[in-house]
Structure formats: C-alpha cells, structure tokens
Design a protein that fits this description.
The protein is of the alpha+beta class. The chain has 2 helices and 6 strands; from the N terminus they run E-E-E-H-E-H-E-E.
Length: about 130
C-alpha cells in the first residue's frame, strides 16, 4: 500500500529526520508533537497547561491536513517528564476530545526535545 506524507505549516515543521504524519490507507500515524509555535518554531511561553494545549493544537492541525480531525484519533501516547502533570493532560483532553475518547498510554520520561515537559503522538483512522 502506498504511503502519503502529510505536511502542514499550521503545525511545527519536523526538527529531525521524520514526517509530521504518514498516511497508509485509512490510517494516519501522527508524529509526536511538542509545544512549539508553528510560526516561530519556539516553545510557547507559559506554564505546562499552556504547553499541553499547544501540543493538542498542533496535533489537531496535522489531523486536519490529513483530512480528519481529533475525533478520528483512535490511540494517543503521551510522554511526560513529570507524571504529576497527568491530571493536566486529562483536563486539556476534555477540551479537545469528546467521548468516546481514544485509547491512551502515558509514559514518564527523563527528557524530551527542547527540554519541554510533554510530547504526544497518535494514530488516526479516517472513515472511508
């Protein structure tokens, strides 16, 4: 099956050797997003709440570029440098997602790119 690379200027460009997303059939694999402002490629100012919200804004932009929305996301993986921020991720998700929610895993990590506190990747399935 052919792969289609998804790119949008509404989300941060790749800061390494990867694509923002790859679509294979009806499945879209969303690369991890960190709280970068797509216009400046700088970490958004503010607390962890603002940064978590930016991550979901960035994921949403990639979903739209792929022809879907966050409502089409079936699986998320959340990486946190402080698992104490898990409740804040739940609060932010309630503003970006509606039930039924995607499957999700949360993983505590020592460090993330650009020393941000959160990164989220996902898998989206588009309806035919």
């Amino acid at each position: 099956m052919a792969r289609k690379i998804i790119e949008t200027t509404d989300a941060p460009g790749a800061i390494g050797a990867y694509s923002q997303a790859v679509k294979v059939g009806d499945t879209v694999y969303l690369s991890g997003q960190i709280p970068l402002d797509p216009a400046t490629m700088e970490v958004v100012p503010g607390d962890v709440d603002a940064q978590i919200k930016q991550v979901f804004k960035n994921l949403s932009a990639v979903c739209v570029a792929a022809g879907g929305s966050l409502a089409d996301v079936v699986k998320l993986t959340v990486y946190l440098t402080d698992l104490g921020d898990f409740a804040k991720v739940n609060e932010a998700m309630a503003g970006f997602f509606e039930a039924p929610y995607p499957a999700r895993a949360a993983i505590g990590v020592a460090q993330l790119p650009k020393d941000v506190p959160v990164e989220v990747e996902g898998i989206m399935v588009l309806s035919s």
